[in-house]
Each structure stands twice: as C-alpha cells, then as structure tokens.
Amino acid sequence: MESTESKSKRQLTTLLDNDVLARVERMRLNPTRRLTNRSRGEHLSGKGGASTEFVDYRDYSPGDDTRYVDWNIFSRLNRPYMKQFRHEEEMHVVVIVDASSSMVYDGKIERAKQLAASLAVMGLMNLERVSVYACHRKSGALQFVSGITGRVSMRRLFDFLENIETGGDFEIDEAVQSVLRRHTGRGIAVLLSDFFTFGAMDRPLNMLFSAGLEVFGIQILAPAEISPEVTGDLRFVDCENGATLDISSAGELLGIYQEHRLALQERIESLCRSRNGRFLSISSHDPLPWVLFDLLRRRGWVR
Amino acid sequence: MSFPGFYDLSGAWLFLLLIPLIIFYFLKLRRPRMDVTSLVLWQQVINDQRVNSPFQKFKRNMLLLLQLLLLVSVILAVMQPFLPTGADRANYVPVLIDCSASMGARDKPGGPTRLEVAKAQVEQMIEDLLPDQQLSLIAFHKTARRVTDFTNNKRVLRDGLRDITVTDIPSKIEEALRMTQAMARTVEINDVLLLTDGNFPTDADFELPFQLTYQRLDPGGRNIGITALNARRAGARKWEVFVRVEGSQKEQTAARVEWSQDGNPVGGEEVILEQQQTERLVFNVETDRPSMIRVQLTPEGFDALESDNVGYLDLPAGRDLTVYCPLEMKAFRHALRGLENIIVEPADGSGASELSEYDLLISDRPEDASPPAQVSLYVGVIPPRLKDLVTVESGGAEIVDWVKSSPLLQYVELTEVYSNDRPQSAPDVHDRHYEEAGFDILAHGRTGPLIVADRSGERPTYYLLFHTDNSTLPYRVGFPILVANTVQIATRQSSLSDVRGTTTGVLPARQLLTNRTYHVAGPGSISRDVNSDDNGIVAGISAPLVGEYALSEGGSEQARIGASLLSSEETSLTGTDTIQFRELSVAATEEKVKMDRPLWPLLTLAALVFLLAEWWYFLRRSGGMVA
Known about the structure:
Number of helices of chain B: 12
CATH class of the largest domain in chain A: Alpha Beta
Distance between the termini of chain B: 57 Å
CATH superfamily of the largest domain in chain B: Class I glutamine amidotransferase (GATase) domain
Largest sheet of chain B: 8 strands, mixed
Number of strands of chain A: 10
Largest interface: A-B, 40 and 30 residues
Structural class of chain A: alpha/beta
CATH architecture of the largest domain in chain A: 3-Layer(aba) Sandwich
Radius of gyration of chain B: 37 Å
CATH topology of the largest domain in chain A: Rossmann fold
Distance between the termini of chain A: 38 Å
CATH class of the largest domain in chain B: Alpha Beta
Strand content of chain A: 25-35%
Number of strands of chain B: 37
Shape of chain A: elongated
Number of domains of chain B: 5
Strand order of the largest sheet of chain A: 5-4-3-6-7-10
CATH topology of the largest domain in chain B: Rossmann fold
Number of helices of chain A: 10
Oligomer: heterodimer
Strand order of the largest sheet of chain B: 17-16-18-19-25-24-23-21
C-alpha cells in the first residue's frame, strides 16, 4: 500500500505513466498540411519569415524593410532584391474530448483522456498553442482550457483532463460546432469520440476544415460495441437520452450490426479524408503504448 | 381425402384457453432492459432489418406463437382425433390368431415366422386402438384359447400377444369361431378378424353370425415334410411301414429320409419331389416287443417348416388276438374258429380263462361278470343304462333297418332275420332317448332297437338286445361276417392290424398301473404330472409340440410316446382361398386390416417439440450483454 502511494506520488499525472509521458514529450505531431497561426512558432511557414534560414529572393517593393536588401546583388546588378527567410509560425492544437454518457463505458473516456493528454503534451512540448475542450452536456457550460503553451502549462493541462466532468447528452457533431463558436486559430483538431450521433458529421467537419483545422478523428469503441454479445428479445435503453428500442432475436441481428458499424467507420473516415483529415478507430482495451508508439507512428500521425 | 374425426369433440371448448393465453402474454410481456451507449447503430439495424424481413412482427412474437402452437397441439390431442380409413368402426373386435404349426413357417432363411408377421399386424392394431374400441385376442389351432378378454388396455393386450406361441398342431377354425360366438352373447360383435396363413380345411361346419375378415398372410417359403406315417402288420412279427412325403406346391424339393427303430438306424432314402408331387416310401421292420420308429427328414437347402421333418410311430408287440367267448356260445366260437391269428378262450374242454384282459369279449353274461376287453360284444344283454328304456319280451321280432356304414354291420345282410326276443321300448321312449343315454342304434326292430353301440368310453362296446340262440341270425350268411367285423374292430383297437403315427394335440390313452402319478416330460421343456384312473388309464396328456413324451414313475420310464405333425395342409403351406361355411363363403384378403389411425400421439409429440422449442427460445432470449 505504501509503495503504491509512493509510486502514485512520483507520477506526474494519473493519466499517463512517467515513462510513457517521457516518450510522449519527445514526440511531435505530424500534420499533413501546414495550417499555422501568424504568430511565431516552431512550424515553418511557406511565406517569408524572420528566421535565419534563407529561402528565396524577391523584387523590392517600396516600403520594404531595407535591412533585408541583399546589397551584394545590388552592387553587381544595381537592382535591389529582398532576401526572404523561412517564417516559423506556431500551430494551434485543438483537442475535443467527447465526455457524454456514451463515452462513460468500459474505459472509453479514460482512453480518450489519455490520448488527449498525450497529443496535447506533444503540442505543448513543440511550443504550439494547445486548447482542450470537453463536451458532456448540451445545457452545461463548455469545459475547456484554451491557448496554453509550453512545458509550464503541462500541470494545468493534466489538472483539467483529470477533472473533466462526464456524462451527458452532448453529441459530437453539436459539440464540434459549439467549440468552433469560441475557438480561433489554425492547426489540428483532434476529435476523441465514439462518433455515435444521430446527426450528420459532414457539417462539423466542414466547419473544422473552414476554420483551418486539420481533423485527426479517433473513434474509441468498447469491445462490447465492436463485438456485442446479445441474444433474445431485449429493450435497449440509450444511456444518453433514455430512449428505448425493442429488439427481437438480437442474436440474429449481429451480422447487420457489424455491417452498420463498419459503414459508420468508413463514412466518417471518408468525410475526414475528403477534408485532408485522418481517421482511426481503436478499442478502449487496446494498450495505450501500442496506440501511441506503434499505431499512430505507423500511420504517420506523430513522429 | 378423408378429414380427421374427433373422438372427444367437447374438448374443443378448451380452445377458449387461447384467449387468456394471448391476454396474459401481452400483459406479462416484459423484455429485459439493457443499457447501451447509443441506439444509433441498433436503430439503423432495425430499420434495415424491417426492410429486409417482412416477418419482423411475426418474429417479434415468436414466443407467443410457440405457446399458441403448444396449446393448440395439446387441445387437439385432448380431442383425440383420428384419421378414418373408411372401414366400419367396430367397438368390440375379436382377433383370431392362428398359432398352428404352419404359422411357424418362414419365407426365407432367418426371416420372420408367419406368427411373427401376424403379431406385428396385431401390434399395430393395438397401437391404433381408439378409446371406445376393445380387442380380444384368441389363439387357435385345433382348439381355441382366449388369450385376453375384451379390453383396450394396451399393456394387457401386448402381454397377451407376447404369450402366443406356435404349436405343432394342425388348425381348425370352428372352435375359435364357436368361442367367438359365445363371446357375442355378452357384447355386440359385428366384425371378427381372422389372421391366418389359411392352412386348414376349406369347409367349416359353422353358421357364421357375424362378418368375418379372413386376412391371409403371405405363405411361407419352400417346404418338404412328412405328412403320413403308418404301418400294417405283414406277419406275426413283421410290419410294413409307410411314409408319405409331400413338398411345396410351386417348387421342386428334395430331402433325405432316414428311419430308425428304437434309436438304431434302419435305413434311408433320397427323395426328390416335383411340384404337387408326393412320394410314398415303404420299408419293413421286425419286432417282437413294443418298438418306436422314428423317421427323420433332412431337407436340401432352405426348409420353411421344421416341425414336419420328423415322425414317430409306436409299434405294438406282434401277437395273436385274444378273444374270450364262453363255451356255451357255440355259434360264435364256431365262427371264430375259421379266422387266423386268434386265440379263443376258454379253450375247448378247459372252461377256464388264463388271461386277465382280452382284446375281444363276446359274451351273453351281464357286463360285470365278464373279463375286461378292448372291444366287447354282449349278446342278449340289456345295457344297465337302458333298463328303464327297453325291456325284452317274448314274441317275434324282425330287423327292419340297420346302419350299414357301421364297422360292426359292414357287409352284413340282416334281412329276414327273426328273433323270439322282442325288445320293447318303454312308452313314449324314442330314438333320441337312446342317444341321450349315450347309445347309437345300429339295428331297428318294430318295437325297439335290436343292436346298439355304447358311445361312452374309450373302448367300443356293442349290445345285441336279442340272443342269437333265439334268432335265425346264426343261420344267415351275415353272421360270420358280423363276427369277422367284430374281430376286425378288436384288431384295430388293439393296434394289431395297422397303426398310425400319433399326432400332436392329445396323446392317446395308455394302460399303466392303477391310481398312480406319472411324470410327463416332453419337448420344449414340457413337464407335468398325470394320474392314472381306477382302470390304469392315463389319458388327456397334452402334446403341443412334435417330439417324444416320456412317462415315468419314480424316475423309471414306463412308456414313451412320439407325437408327429403329419398334416398335409400344414406341410403344403398353401392357404385356402375361400372358407366355405354352411351358408356362405368368405374369401381371403391379403390387404392389411384398416383401422382408424389415431393422431393424438403425433400431436402429443408435436406439443413436446413446441415445448422444447419454446424453452430453448426462452433461454436464448433471456441471455445477453450485461450493461
């Protein structure tokens, strides 16, 4: 008991083991597009910047800063040319955690919080601006921590994630729209959800795309959702809204259930891809190190 | 197509139970609740399934459907439906099952016997028995035995059916029909089922009061057997033995016949029979003491019936016929003197008899003063049982008619025979009174009978109510013929002229010691005790199987009798097509008896299946994921 307590005391957060955290800190997000903010950061911009790394020349325009005129060329050609340097801009990493009731099942929300922590840490350690939103109830206030950056914010990040309020009826499509109403900044939007919504996902994904956020969709399902074991006549009760559905001979419907689950997965993946995004479906029982250091790395999500 | 009938239609009221069943089902229908994270996928599944499966609603109430099917099956079973076959349905059906020797025949090696085939049909009838129908099983061969009373208790009927076994006795159907007729006095019998292979005499001396279904079973296969075995005296110690062998009517048969005397082989011969051919074998044996001849037939190839492959013949010791005739009856002694192989006592001049029993007694003394004999002829004696019916008076008497077919009066001309003794029947005494007293009138006078024969007892006894010394009979040609006939009867009775093989059924009476208990051991583990009467006669020994029956006393064998089948009908295995009764004939049918087929066993089975299906479905439905 004592050793357990001393061990927990040594842990920086209950979400991640220290060794996992140490490895995460050395990893970086690897977006497909360079969606960055104008503010300085560690992401190189395609536009001219103020870094020391030379990129190109351009013609001088009146009003340009004469400090960037290449005088050597001017002396030879008698024409002013402006030296351009690579611009390092910061990227905004938005993590949206679905904390509704459907996620409070068989370790789904725990896995979502761990992934949110890991990806946010990667952003923080890369000096990105990181915002984390947790959506649980439509009527409730949006839980978030916004605009944090740097290693110093790590404690704040962990505290926020560890104390997320869960359970509610907030569906992911509505949650995304709600987040976008108060968020500004381009970069990456990580969606951690089971994507079980009666609403359409194309509108929120369009809004993310329009807001300059590259979507990293991660679907987290429980094993009982991937391969349910149900038989007989049942009355299913939706844990989010209390709606019921009578099922007869549930065992005979499992085949159709699998077809629809895979169809949902393919549809969301297709929506993400068409908006230069990425999609991944994992089980809440998949080991976290395997997901972080193997799966995401192989898929090129992180490096 | 015939629609099913219902024995208990009032059970249809139970269909009202369907109403509360449906009501209670929907009142009590509660699906187990299960929390799921989201209904998104399941809603899509249901929408998809409803499109693909138009029977979704039907499947949703599968449990109710199974319960309804279960209840309907049970109610229909309670109503006791049956499938009518078109046959008139009788409430009381006697089933006459032939268990004679030919019913043990098989149609092929290892195949079932005819009796087993018949039993299978009766078993099906018992299975299909309706509640208001009762069967009575009657097994018959030469006689009939009621195996079960009228009952619908299937266990009793099956037990009774199991007890019926083949006996090596020829069959006659009259006894079974008479027994059935007697049963008809207590219950109404309209139809009688006769299950037999038809190996019995075509003519039946019976007036059929009910409808008889003569169901003839398929005949057995190829068969050859011994159908007759007898012997004729060919000398003082020599016998000619005759064996008749018959085969199947439709096939060639062959066998080897071997005979032995007291266990010692005597000879043998090969026999090949074409269709419808019989073979008569003759061989001689010599014996000066009682001897048993055993004839064994060994068929070549398959033989349907085994019981006709052996025959037994008991030969008596060769000797002269002993006749007791008083010296005073000179006419008879004179007539006897001309016959061979006869010893007449008392001898002339001696006046005393040396034997305690004779083969033939001719006497004019009252019965109680005469020595016992196999055949007796009393002259001028009125039988004690007829003393109240007839008296002998003086006066002329004349024979006006006589029974010419009687063995005693065969070839005897009695016209113009007069007697001074005139038998006079008592007033109001007619012929039937003599018959009721146990006598047959062989010769009629004008006022009363002149010659009568006692029908009672094993030993033939004849009475001439007039004395021959007071008549013209000794002077007629018919007199020596009458004496010769009497001797012939005695010779046959003492088995001194010819003997026939003893057939199964009841063994012939044997003369042994008086008032003793003898143990009878026979084939098929037959074991029983019989008692001899005051005359030392042992009679009534049942012999249902072919074989040797030993009579022993205190472990010491006293007699041995061989019983054989010796029946041409049984061996031929050719069933008669038609039974000719007195007034009508009944044709055989090979169609199986149509019985209304009960359906409730099937419905009960269906109900059980529905119950199991409902149980399985209920268990399957109640399982599932724990949220």
